[in-house]
Amino acid sequence: MEPTERKRRLEGDSSEPSYAKRAQRQHDADSSDEEDYTPYVPLRDRRKQEQERHAKLLSKRTKGGNNTKENPDENNTNKEKVESATAALPNVSLLDQHSELLKKAETVKETEIEKQLKEEQKILESIAEKKALMAVSEIAKGVVYTDPIKTGWRPPRYFQNIPESKFDRIRKKWCILVEGEDIPPPIKHFKEMKFPRAIINALKRMKIHHPTPIQVQGIPAVLTGRDIIGIAFTGSGKTLVFTLPIVMFSLEQEKALPFRRDEGPYGLIVVPSRELAKQTCDVIQNFTRALEADGFPSVRTVLCIGGSSMKDQSEKIRRGVHIIVATPGRLMDLLDKKIVDLDICRYLCLDEADRMIDMGFEEDVRTIFSYFKCQRQTLLFSATMPKKIQNFAKSALVKPITINVGRAGAASLDVIQEVEYVKQEAKVVYLLECLNKTSPPVLVFASKKSDVDDIHEYLLLKGVEAVAIHGDKDQEERERAVSAFREGRKDVLVATDVASKGLDFPNIAHVINYDMPDDIENYVHRIGRTGRSGKTGTATTFINKSCDESVLLDMKHLLAEAKQKIPPFLAALEPENEELLNVGDERGCAYCGGLGHRITDCPKLEAKQIKETGNIGRKDYLAPGAADW
After folding, report:
1. Cα(251)–Cα(410) distance, integer angstroms
2. DSSP of 302-365, one letter per residue?
3. pTM for the complete prediction?
4. For the segment 74-85, what is each residue's pLDDT rounded down to a tens digit?
5. Interatomic CA distance for residues 531 and 371, integer angstroms
């Protein structure tokens, strides 16, 4: 044992401190805590002290500045410091702080809106058509038509004494929006439009007694020879706007100088589908037969569509024809083979014009324009026509008049829209329940041809009188199916979108969308097969998780616009930047017309760009002779 350790033990020392020492240490610690203790100062007093401190600092700096030479840079720095210190003072009320934050938020929002609009402008410029919708010869020669075609029709003389303000009130009452120069007056009666008694009687047999809003303004505009863009909801009577004038123009030409063999046509109507072409031709022939029965000269009309004998069509054309109603593909064949020439054609109508361009007929339409030898009156009609299509179409028109009844792409208010969440495997079974909602006839839409065949077979097995049409069926079968459905011999028609564009089934009370289409435009056209000519109808749409969210957002806004019931699963969907949906001149998307997104998020534009990207370089691999390898 060490000596020091032994000594410590002998003296009674231990490693633990004594009680007195521990008490002394505790007292010292308490004293130090009292010295470090800072009394609580209320927030108001602390703010006051802070203000006094900054005021003293400011006064010292001001005095110092008077005794020394001025340094501008230093003074500016001091000012900024004082201003920042003053701005940081907490003596601003909460209400003022809230107002300041709101202003900052508005500034940020305006910046976002400006960025959005600039980006959209860039996209629109990139997708804008650089080639005008004109004949190649006209572009090459620099031919520009400045005045519309003149016709012999004039409104009744007493219309000259009616002030323009009254016409504006009529347009406002009928919700007719017009753009253009020298707009003809709206006329509310067919008799005042100077149609013959035979035409008026034929309209009465069709149970048409008064013109609809698009006809009130559209027919007088066409009769005066003006180029027009007609936009109105489905079932509003757009067909009569371009069929009645062409019948009267052709009758006028036949009376002045009868058409001989191989002459004509005087008027050309181009539509996207065979069924719509046949329906349009039937409407025209109904009027021409009525005129002929009343002693007027014969006006000949020829239907030119695929799936039918070209030989029969060419024979009818060679006899001399006044009006041709055609689909783009068959018309191109007839023009290439010089069976049809447009030397004396003065009237061109593109029905469902935007749908034709979407379906890839744009180059065909350009080519058709190239066959015209002189100026013509051009009409474009559709229920959905976004600004992009309107601007593109105006390059082919001369001082056009745009007639818009309601918003372009809006659904008819006469259709009750119902949306049901149905799982994919339960659709076919639930379809039978939906068929019992209303009495027949019922129209069922599906996107795929295979689905159309499956639904048709299932309904037949369940004892439902059903027929089906799609693009793979031959023309004779399609005509039989549509005829049986229209005449009431069949209760249900199952179809792809070939039946969604312009077809008129006046008695349909119910449309069922077996699946949601890829874009909202097709949805508007589909449900427009019911609720026509002032009647009410019901549209039921099946949706589930497989549906594109952007299309569902478009549907949600479309339902809200039409004041329809929005189901909870749609109401829960919210776009990322809802405040940006209605900025600028165009609501929603300027490319497809959807209200639930902007053009920067357009799925239709994205799909088109992906398709075009996929086609790049493909022609190099499919060079002439490559298919024979």
Report:
1. 36
2. EEE-TTS-HHHHHHHHHT--SEEEE-HHHHHHHHHTTSS--SS--EEEEETHHHHHHTT-HHHH
3. 0.72
4. 445 544 444 444
5. 39
